[in-house]
Amino acid sequence: MEPERDLPEGWKLIRPPGETYAMIESGDYIWTGGQAGVYKIDRGKFELIEHLSLPREVDYVKALYMDREGALWIGHFNGLTVLKEDGNLILEVNEGLPDKRVNCMYEDSQGRLLVGTWGGVAIFNGQSWEAITRENGLMEDMVNVIMEDSLGGYWFGHYVAPRGGISYLRNGKWQYFSVEKGLPHNNITAFHEDTLGYVWAGMGLFERGGAVRFTYNGNEWEIAAALHKEQGLAGEKVRFIFQDHRDVYWFTSEFDGVAVFTKEALLGGGESHILTEERGLANYEVKVILQDADGVLWLGTHYGVNAIEKDALSRLP
């Protein structure tokens, strides 16, 4: 058993779950998905409530989504499993997927569910599925992350380096970004549109990568700046990008912890604040972040989940 750790005041460590790829908030609970399946956490008590009993093939959970009827959609290496609100009825929804290996899920402004797989994107409108693949616009079929921006455009990040990069679709027009067009790496791990209207993309593999800031010139998106360790990142590969309720930016890394920037420091070339295991992290690799309705910040890591209470968060950076 791991010895008890001294954590900063206002920090919590919940373990299990272990390796965590996805988190969502629903009512009084935080749901996490990871290599060992799905866990339910009481977000007020910071306590693990349940490790869901699911079919054996539901492991390596990469994505979670709660629909308007209260059903939990679980995206994993063997497809989509839907757990109804009563907790008893489990459905397999794989017929409309271009590939059963699910990487991500995203609900767009029209209420449609976009599912990123190794074989393209499946879009569910509540009744039927349609697919986006290389045949109708994507650079590559393997889609690792999806985001809709405030202009109504869709960002699709691929993870098949040395090929890949970013496919962007708006109003039927495609735009593409890759290493040849200025990206630090073609493996895309994260998207985030900030409160200023910039779009950020995280990318990399092992010790290579970075983050890129895109600006819209009135006609199309263009790369405005790149971030690396010399600009304050904790490590070169960026795993996740998040902006909390204070407009503070979080850039997580593969091996080296999290770089926390104020908006002024990030855009003005100031210093970041680096969080590590020695400073409270459950693990150096933070794969996903969310902030709940009470302002608590939740960090899903390679080994455990951190919760940072609102008062403790105000002391960072």
The largest beta-sheet arranges its strands as: 1-28-27-26
Number of helices: 2
Span between termini: 32 Å
Helical percent range?
A: under 10%
Mean pLDDT, all residues = 95
Major sheet: size, sense and barrel closure?
A: 4 strands, antiparallel
Spatial extent as radius of gyration: 19 Å
Label the overall shape. globular
DSSP summary, beta strand count: 28
- Please state roughly what percent of the residues sit in beta strands, choosing from under 5%, 5-15%, 15-25%, 25-35%, 35-45% or over 45%: over 45%
Uncertain stretches: none
Give, in order, the helices and strands. Answer: EEEEEEEEEEEEEEEEEEEEEEEEHEEEEH
Textual characterization of the structure:
- 3% of the residues lie in helices and 47% in strands.
- It is mainly β and 317 residues long.
- A 4-stranded antiparallel beta sheet has the order 1-28-27-26.
- A hairpin with a 2-residue loop joins strand 11 (113-117) and strand 12 (120-124).
- It is globular and about 55 Å long.
- The protein starts with 10 loop residues before the first strand and ends with a helix.
